[in-house]
Design goal:
Hypothetical Protein Yqey, Chain: A, domain1; 152 residues; mainly alpha
Amino acid sequence: MSLHTDIKGQMIEAMKARDAVRLNVIRGLLSSFTNEAVAKKRKPDEMLSDEEVLSVISRAVKQRKDSIEQYEKGGRSDLAEVEKSELAILEIYLPAQMSREEVFEYVKNKVAGLPDVASAKSGQFIGTIMKELKGKADGSLVKEAVDSLLTQ
């Protein structure tokens, strides 16, 4: 069963359980899936691949994290709490995230494999690593690891 189909089924479960927060998050995801399908010039009711679904969910997670940061800066902890509860629901669908140590170790091994570390462009290198990890690591953490290891 695809992730898209699984999430559609979970919407019905959330309705039966009267879980308003989970229901709103899932409805938002399904709407984003439809938008993604249309953006890729496909029919709105077509199913997305698991990779496309994870991409949409990752964007939603990033939006929630940005919103939480902005709300906390603005002193709106009530709105930040709502975003945090939605973030917790979204993170269930993502693959397990790598720890800080695992990311630094992975990047260190990649840097060791480079023929000329001095000429490596960090932006391209970060992009390559993010593609290899496919959502298993936070982009800001990868950037931090690459910057610290390439500037040594």
